[in-house]
Specification:
Length: about 230
Amino acid sequence: MDSPRIYSTADVDQRAEIGPGTVIWHLAQIRENASLGAHCIIGRGAYVGPGVVIGDRVKLQNYALVYEPARLEDEVFVGPASVLTNDVYPRSVDVTGKLKRPADWNALGAIVRHGASIGARAVIMAGVVIGRWALVGAGAVVTRDVPDFALVAGVPARRIGWVGRAGSSLVAESAGRWRCPEVGEVYEEVDGVLTLTAEPGTAPLADEPALETNSVHLGDVHDDGT
């Protein structure tokens, strides 16, 4: 089994769990009780908050910030300087002027489903769910849940198309039928929900639980350690 590789300038709490083959680059910080799966890559200056759960083969690019209690499933990509926030109504102090501490607010983490990708400098608001194999465009501000295979972009982010597992935009073949130009997988759209169909040479997705719904419209980061 491959041992994790942690660079000397990285700050990894001894209470964090790091899976085999995972690489943590310079100046990254992994907080207490975070759990990282196998063969992940955590880029320079990335931050993983306390108790965050990250699956296998996940990539956090340089300076990506993942605040607790976020959950990233297997094979997720988070681009450079992206932020997964956790506070819907952030304030430094309460109405009396007292500095807020962790007990004074409730963290609401983002959820990123299997295979989804988040582009550079995107902001994911607290409690939002990014669906399986969805793709969030660079610089987007995501305020609502994103369906499986959706391509979203803009401020606030809106769906502008569909993408397949290969990451390419799908091409419409007929009403409700889409094809990936890269690998030939075929998808069907029914009532705004896209699913991968079984075809010779392609593998259908296994059934997974439906997306949780935690949509919000405002949000920012509140660090448990301040």
